[in-house]
Write a structure and sequence with these properties.
about 240 residues; mainly beta; eight-stranded antiparallel barrel
């Protein structure tokens, strides 16, 4: 009888851990992935997690623009502290305010001269959901080198189903590149499919598979890049 009770406790613990790992995105009504498809077929994607926002505009085979930064919601207003903007780098460092409304899975975002209505994607969070920053990379000999923290950074924002990385320097307003799309995390295997890539539109549609080992706030990311080179990186959650 005592053994059965112990087994029940273990079973309930496993169920609880699964519920926590793959839970509905309820931390903030804004957080998650939102999509707007224009009549021309152009897609505007909003991804938000850990109070960070990225807005990217692209066509099925062409990257157009991206912008983003930390955000804060105050009632029916969204305040965006811009860290990068490929269309207008003069906005970097500024705080922009947008009136918003959320109703029935739709987000209406008002800016001068336009009202944009985004539809929320249905997704569950994963252990990777959030904002990450690369902090370590192995050289050709396999030796891991930790990166000194500075204004130049590569970050990766993940919702429950979408990913996007950006390489930026908010201090100099420099933008070096971005790529993003969808991902699946299953049994320690992370697979991403590229929807847009600022440096090479030819990589769109490729799927890349990596091993993912998550140790508290560190994500060990190993495999091969889209160019075939070895990838061995450490990403750390941004606080």
């Amino acid at each position: 009888m005592h053994l059965q009770k112990q087994q029940l406790i273990v079973f309930l613990g496993l169920i609880s851990s699964l519920i926590v790992a793959f839970r509905p995105l309820q931390k903030n009504k804004l957080e998650g992935a939102w999509r707007l498809t224009e009549p021309s077929g152009t897609i505007v994607m909003l991804t938000m997690a850990d109070n960070y926002l990225i807005q990217t505009t692209y066509e099925p085979n062409r990257f157009i623009s991206t912008r983003g930064g930390a955000f804060r919601q105050e009632g029916n207003q969204l305040n965006l502290m811009v860290e990068f903007d490929t269309k207008d780098s003069s906005r970097v460092g500024q705080t922009e305010t947008y009136p918003i409304t959320i109703s029935k899975g739709q987000l209406t975002m008002t800016s001068p001269g336009s009202n944009r209505v985004f539809t929320q994607l249905s997704e569950l969070s994963t252990p990777l959901t959030g904002l990450w920053r690369i902090t370590g990379r192995a050289n050709d000999a396999g030796q891991m080198t930790m990166m000194q923290r500075g204004p130049r950074k590569t970050i990766k924002l993940l919702t429950g189903s979408r990913f996007q990385w950006v390489a930026i320097n908010p201090q100099t307003k420099q933008f070096s590149g971005t790529g993003g799309g969808t991902y699946v995390l299953k049994s320690g295997i992370y697979t991403e499919t590229i929807d847009f890539f600022s440096r090479d539109n030819g990589r769109v549609g490729r799927s890349l598979t990596f091993k993912a080992a998550i140790d508290q706030d560190e994500w060990h990311h190993t495999g091969q890049s889209s160019t075939g080179g070895a990838v061995n990186e450490i990403w750390t959650r941004e606080k």
